[in-house]
Amino acid sequence: MLIDRLAFTGLRNLGMLDFTPSSGINLIVGRNGSGKTSLLEGLHILGMGRSFRTRQLKHAIAHDAEEMTLFARLAGEPPLPIGVRRARALAELEMRMGGERVSRLAQLIEALPLQLVNPDAFRLLEGPPAGRREFLDWGVFHVKHGFYDAWRRAKRALKHRNALLRHGRMDANSLAAWEQELALWGERVDNLRREWMASFVPVFEETLARLIELPELRLRYSRGWDKQRSLQEVLEQGRSADQQMGFTQNGPQRADLRIRLGRRPAVEVLSRGQQKLVVSALKLAQGRLLELTTGRSCLYLVDDLPAELDAEHRRVFCRLLESMRCQAFITSVEHDALVGPWQSHTPLAMFHVKQASSGAGQLVPQAQIDFTTE
Ligand SMILES: Nc1ncnc2c1ncn2[C@@H]1O[C@H](COP(=O)(O)OP(=O)(O)O)[C@@H](O)[C@H]1O
Ligand SMILES: [Mg+2]
């Protein structure tokens, strides 16, 4: 996966933007408020169907525009154009791939695997389980065939079970049928997650060891229900308690990743800086495992690199990214902090986001820096 052309219109302050990124490291510099994060946001919307800054995509539409369109061409034989459009007047995100409308977000996500490292990233550790579950499922989805289908079926069964639980008079037959369905697909989801974890953990530990010495840190998967019992059993036995709560309290929808240092949750022990390194290792490990198992590379979006990591860790982080040979977009206000950490032979494409006189941000390819080894 490699983007060889990007064209955005109507995205925040970015104005019309159409450029050819490099297949490797793209460095984006610009003053505060120039539109660097918006550029990454556009890529994130393209690959994930949602922004990392706002829940409501309409807020990302430029104030003076009626819609935004985000387009990327993925290199290949033939190349694959992908695009999304969000009109202010319509609530839906229109998605296209290869000239055709697509209805499932999963198709977009599959086409453009990406990971984001930004100043909010440490929330992966301290935030609610949903974020960690999403991180986990991103990996399983890209690597394990059949995961999406199993998860969709489990979710559907869960929705029906929850609706029945809330219903005054419960139809016992329907409930049993949906429980069976949820148990079947929920166990499948759990198996795939578990298999994925078994390959992820060693990659993560190896990546972490290169960034920071924390030999006691353990990453563990918790499946969301009792280890000793089948999901079917848990659902049957939990019926009346679930009915009182009005929702299903145990199941794959409650899965989590537990990150501990010795016996304590890592967030309680680690400094903010250490947390950022752990999160960086998690995110880099996702891309490394994707590459190892599928041969596909992951797109990296790194917002405000110097805010994330100090000079020494920036260097290690960038060396890891280099070794992965993936495409990356990395922003900063500081030119030197962006250029410094790379090996001298790594080609760097530098772009400068400038405020145009009209107020719209413009992306001006500033220079193609191409160091050669001595
Ligand atoms: N919907 C919008 N329409 C137009 N401009 C916007 C919109 N939302 C935010 N902005 C402006 O876009 C600018 C770019 O912000 P941002 O991408 O965060 O810049 P940077 O990351 O370079 O500091 C900010 O000046 C902000 O005020
Ligand atoms: Mg920013």
Question: Could you characterize the architecture of this molecule?
Answer:
- By secondary structure, the chain is an alpha/beta fold.
- It has a domain of 189 residues: 3-Layer(aba) Sandwich (Rossmann fold), CATH 3.40.50.
- The chain has 13 helices and 15 strands.
- Strand 14 and strand 15 form a beta hairpin.
- Helix 6 crosses helix 7.
- It is globular, with a radius of gyration of 22 Å.
- The C terminus is likely disordered.
- The protein binds adenosine-5'-diphosphate (ADP) and magnesium ion (MG).
- Magnesium ion binds next to helix 1.
Morphology call: globular
CATH architecture of the domain at 1-113 and 299-374: 3-Layer(aba) Sandwich
The percentage helix is 40-55%
**Beta-strand residue percentage:** 15-25%
Largest sheet: 6 strands, antiparallel
Features:
13 helices, single chain, disordered C terminus, 374 residues, ATP-binding, alpha/beta, 6-stranded mixed beta sheet
